[in-house]
Amino acid sequence: MTMKIGILVGSLRAHSYNRMVANTIPDLVPTAQFEHIAIGELPFYNSDLDQDEGPDAVKLFRDQVRAADGIIIVSPEYNAGMPGVLKNALDWASTKAAAGALIKKPAAIIGATPGPRGTIMGQQQIRHTLEGVQALALPYQRMYISEVMHKVDPAVGKLTDATTNKYLQRYVEAFVQWIDQVNLLDR
């Protein structure tokens, strides 16, 4: 059975560098099926709205997260932290009405930035939140892409730097192995 991996992009910008990285992932690991899971239509989290299955956009989002064998988060860093739209999505995916769509869900974190340090601080916040919602973040490995504007081709909307693509491929392959390990431990 083909592994199904959901991809969340923590930027809503149409020409986001992180979206370009996310668009590249399916080309690098053809053994898995990837699905982009949109977060832009989710309302701000409000427990008053979190009744039954929640609003339609939330229900769709939660169903897509539940159906995935694992989740890859590809996100920029805003002001040394996680983008608010991503935190909002993680909150919706983890609430009681969702029966914890992220509980025991394998997760990986990738981040791209024009800056020289990657997305170190933002990824720390994402990892902390994933731990709080009981998701299982890929341990010991990090994927930071710095100076990304020199590594993408906006005309095709993908990451084109050969060296970075090689590292990204290795990272996603390690994540696929992590999903397999988590599934063995969960039996």
UniProtKB/TrEMBL annotation:
Pfam families, per database record: FMN_red (PF03358)
Cellular compartments per GO CC: cytosol
Record-linked InterPro entries: Flavoprotein-like_sf, FMN_Rdtase-like_dom, NAD(P)H-dep_reductase
Any one GO MF annotation of this record: FMN binding
Occurrences of domain NADPH-dependent FMN reductase-like (ranges): 3-142
Domain of life of the organism encoding this protein: Bacteria
Similarity-based family: Belongs to the azoreductase type 2 family.
Name this protein carries in UniProt: Chromate reductase
Species per Swiss-Prot/TrEMBL record: Paenibacillus phyllosphaerae
